[in-house]
Amino acid sequence: MSFDSLGLSAEILRAVEEQGYREPTPIQTQAIPVVLQGRDLMASAQTGTGKTAGFTLPLLNMLSHSNAQFKGRRPVRALILTPTRELAAQIGENVVSYSKYLTLRSLVVFGGVSINPQMLKLRAGVDVLIATPGRLLDLEHQNAVDLSKVEILVLDEADRMLDMGFIHDIRRVLAKLPAKRQNLLFSATFSDEIKGLASKLLTNPASVEVARRNTASEQIEQSVHFVDKKRKRELLSQMIGEGDWRQVLVFTRTKHGANHLAEQLNKDGITASAIHGNKSQGARTRALADFKDGGVRVLVATDIAARGLDIDQLPHVVNYELPNVPEDYVHRIGRTGRAESTGEAISLVCVDEHKLLRDIERLLKREVPRIALEGYEPDPTIKAEPIINGRQGSGGGGGRGAPRQGGGQRSGSGAPRSSAPRSAGSGQRSGNGGGENRGSGEGRPAARPSRAANAGQRRSGPPGGSRNS
Fold it and tell me: Do 313 and 394 share a domain, yes or no?
C-alpha cells in the first residue's frame, strides 16, 4: 500500500514524499482512513511505529479542507495533548513538515520557558495547538487561549499522562472543549485505566492495535553483567573505551545518579552529558544535539527524560541501573535495534537488583544471557540493600564516586574478556525528555511509578516507513 491510496491531499502527499517516505506503516494504514472518516479512534502503538504521522496527516488533511471558512484570527481547531515538553516539540516539527504546502498555522506550548511569546502567537491565531496539559491550563487561566472551537482532540501517550499524574489536568482541559468533537486516543497499552478514560471520552470508537506489548526486538542483543555497584562505573568506562563505542545511551534511576555518572565519565576522559527533568529545556536540547553530532559519546538519562528520544540507529544502550518497572526495560532497550539495524543492550546488575532482573525476565518470558567478566566477579559477601524510590542504599545512583580499582584481563576485541560464553538466544530535533514541570523536578508528581515508557520516534517523519534510497 502507498500513501496515495489513503485519501490524503496532494499537498500532504508532496510533503510526505519530500521527507523520503514511500509506504505507510501498519498504524498509519489503519488509523489514517478512520480519522479521515471523522470517527473517534482508540489506537495502541508503541513509539517508533509511525503513530505521530498516523494522526497528524489526516488531522491536517481535514483542517485544510475547511480552512477557507475562517477569516481573520484563526481559532484553535485541533488540540494535541502530550505528557512531555520535548515530545510536544517533536510533534510540532512533524506538523510543520507535513503542512509545508498548506496554509495552516501551528504552535507548540509547554512549561519551562517564558509564557509571553506563546501568548503573543496565540493572539495572532493558530489552527493546530500542541501542548502539555499544565501550560495549556496556565494559558487558559490567563484567557490567552480559546478552546471553544476545537474540532479534533488528540491524547498522545495517554498511558504515560495517567502514570505521570495528569488525569486531573486532562479532565479540566476536557471541560473547556465543545461537546461535539472528534477524539483520538493513542496509548502504548490498553490498561484498565486507559479503557476507563476511553469509555468516557470516545463515542463508538474504532480500535486499532498494531504492536505487541512487552516484547523486545529480535534485532537487539541483550546481555547481563553481574558486578558490584561500586565498580559499575569502572566497568562501563572500560567497555566504552576498549569497545571504542562512539554513541551509547545510559540509563540511571535518578536525576542525581545521571549527573554523577556523567561527571565521573568525563573525569575518565569519556565525553558525557546528562538529561533529566531538572535540566532546562535548552540544556537538554543542546545535550541531545551534541550526542547526535558526536560531540559527546555518552548520554546519561532517566526514564522520563529519555521519553521519546529521537536518535537514528543507536548502537548501544546500557542499563547502568535496572528500572523499578519491568516494562520500562523493554522501552529502554527498544531505542536500539530499529529499522532493520542491530543493537546491543547491556545491563550492569548488582546484588541489590537481582529481584528487578527476575521481574524483567518474567515479563520477557526468557532469561537474558549472562556474561561473567574476569576481574569483575561480584563479591559474594556483599548483602543486598533495599531500593527505595529509585535509590539504592550506599553507593547507588551513579556510583557515588567510587575509586577505580584494578580491572580484569582485556581482550583484543574491545571488551573485557568473558570467562563464560554467551548463552544461546535471548532474548523536531529536540531531546524528548522530562515531563512537563511548572517548577523543578521530573514532571508532575506521579501517583505511582510509571508503568510504560515508550521509545521515541526515529526521526521527524512517519518512522518505520520505507524510505527512498
Answer: yes
> 157: domain range?
3-213+463-467
Instruction: Say if residue 260 is in the same domain as residue 329.
Output: yes
The residue among 157, 154, 208, 149 whose CA lies nearest residue 182 is 154
- Whether 118 and 172 share a structural domain: yes
Whether 179 and 268 share a structural domain: no
pLDDT of residue 348: 98
Rounded to 10 degrees, what is the CA torsion of 243, 246, 454, 236? 40
- If one counts the domains in the chain, the total is 2
Other CB atoms closer than 10 Å to residue 64's CB: what's the count? 18
Please state the separation of Cα 380 from the chain's center in Å: 37
Residue 441 belongs to some domain of the structure:
no
* Number of residues written out for the chain: 469
Q: Helix count (H) and strand count (E) of the chain?
A: 14, 15
Find, among 139, 128, 131, the residue nearest to 89 by Cα.
131
Buried b (16+ CB within 10 A) or exposed e, 305-339: bbbbbbbeebbbbbbbbbbbbbbbbbbbbbbbbbe
386 lies in some domain: yes
pLDDT value for 350: 97
What the block records as the C-alpha cell of 253 is 534511576
What's the whole-model pTM score?
0.59
- Report the pLDDT averaged over residues 377-385: 93
Instruction: Encode pLDDT of 191-219 as tens digits.
Output: 788 888 899 999 999 999 875 444 556 67
Tell me how far the alpha carbon of residue 68 is from its chain's centroid. 36
CA atoms within 13 A on the CB side of 113: 18
Q: Tell me: do 34 and 176 sit in the same domain.
A: yes
d(CA 313, CA 315) in angstroms, rounded, equals 6
Among 78-82, 155-159, 234-238, where is mean pLDDT lowest?
A: 155-159
Half-sphere exposure of 397 (CA within 13 A, CB side): 15
In-domain check, residue 106: yes
Q: What is the pLDDT of residues 16-75, one digit of tens each?
A: 998 878 889 889 999 999 999 999 999 987 666 788 999 999 999 999 987 656 666 789
On whether residue 323 sits in a domain, the answer given is yes
Cα separation, 423 vs 317, in Å, equals 20
CATH of the domain at 94: 3.40.50.300
Q: To which H or E segment does residue 21 belong?
A: strand 21-23
Residue 408 is predicted with a pLDDT of 36
